Input
Amino acid sequence: MAAPHALVATARRLLAERVGAQEVTLLLADYGLTVLQAVSHLPHTHRPVPAHEGPAGSAFRTQKPVLEVAQEPTGHVAHLPITVRGDRLGVLSVRLPAGAPDPDTVLQLGDFATALGHEVITAGRDTDVYLQARRTRRLTLAAEMQWQLLPGGGCAREEYVIGAHLEPAYAIGGDNFDWSAGADHLVLTMTDGMGQGIDASLLTSLAVGALRNARRADIALADQACLADQAVYAQYGGKVYASTLLLRFELATGTVCAVDAGSPQLFRQRDGRTEQIELTAQLPLGMFEETLYEEQTFQVRPGDRLIAVSTGVHGTRSAMGDLFGERALRQILSATRPTAPHETARAIVAGLVEHYGSSDLATDAAVVCLDWNGPRN
Output
């Protein structure tokens, strides 16, 4: 069994034995999903490569193996996407001997990359090596807390595929998304803690922790909101609050229970149309003592795409004072409809950054994109 920090060295040894690999590099996506960085014992000993360009970037973006012809030394480099249950981690690049690899070898390498991804996630509990490899610069303390709170960057099952994105990745404070699936349901939440920096991060951590605690008690969605509301109010006395959207999907029927407790907005794409799902706005968590929440329901059909966005997306203004707003969001959603959910989430944030005029957004921005495939056959 490999030591947690030694997965790359073990992968090199195993692939050299099995397929004659001459070089093996584990590239992990940085928090902003802009570059892929090599895992090494010393940080930044390899130059990062673009996460959406070039052979490795193409493998990451398309989630398909890419074969690159190597000139010196001759041979091929196989770039294999590393994804664990829909969460894109990075790419495994394997330099192979001269001669084109056969399809079975590429398939075996793909399986190996997936297995390595599972090991990376497990090893991350016992070493900082892989978390360090994901950063191009230092995270703020608030961002460190938020990234540790997140479930991942995506999730996939037969019934659905989720892709999500956060910015500013290295200074995020109060925005959060969370999900959990059982045999017959999926619960998804988006939370926007009031304030900036550490204050917002602490508030969101409390709200998300309370929601998880209530969810794991297997109580109704509205009651989950009630208990989280009480926890936040008990701590802050109504001085600050957390805007939250709670969704519970019945996997067999596509029925969605929803509680709109604040400002995140929800859109649906169906049959070429984009529409906002109008939910009854209820009070954010922690604004008043013992707030009662009510559930609403709507239906999703196979082929539907849902997009949830925080206030930092739909409420951001440019330097000229122009609101990003629903029109710009609809344009991006229409243009990215053929792409995978994780690419759509990234494109929305990229459009927001372009509108704002700087990658240093003034407020947090969170996007969750979910493709609904329907019940399993």
In short: The chain has a mean pLDDT of 91. The radius of gyration is 22 Å. The chain is about 35% helix and 30% strand. The first helix runs from residue 7 to 19.
